[in-house]
Amino acid sequence: MKRDIKKITSELYESPHKERNEDKFGTLDSKQCICCMKPMNEDENSKTVHMNENWVAVHNSVTDENCKELTGADSQGTFDIGNSCAKKMPKDFVI
Q1: How far apart (Å, rounded) are the C-alpha atoms in residues 51 and 32?
Q2: H or E element at residue 79
Q3: Domain residue limits, the chain
């Protein structure tokens, strides 16, 4: 049984400061919030968001294995998201 795709996908929150932060910090090898590009403390109890190849967040119940079947696109894996940006996403899309 296929779920309603609108309930298992969500647009990723994008901070209005993302571009400015990306210019300032670049792309780091360490933890960095995917929504605002700010560096994150390594010891920060960070959250992640699971993204598919269409670059939309997928519901926490979606796995790498069933992502394509349920969302129409393969999984891209999980990405770090800072606590303040995570609050702007639906809670069932932040791990």
Answers
A1: 15
A2: strand 75-81
A3: 5-93
Nearest to 37 by CA among 55, 21, 20: 21
Residue 42 CA to residue 59 CA, distance in Å, equals 25
Helix H, strand E, coil C: the string for 22-64 is HHHHCCCCCCECCCCCCECCCCCCCEEEEEECCCCEECCCCCC
Within 8 A by CB and 6+ apart from 48, the residues are 78, 79, 80, 81, 94, 95
**Amino acid letter, 15:** S
Q: What is the pLDDT along the chain (95 residues), one digit of tens a residue?
A: 455 556 899 999 999 999 999 999 988 888 899 999 999 987 767 799 999 999 999 999 999 999 999 999 999 999 999 999 999 999 999 99
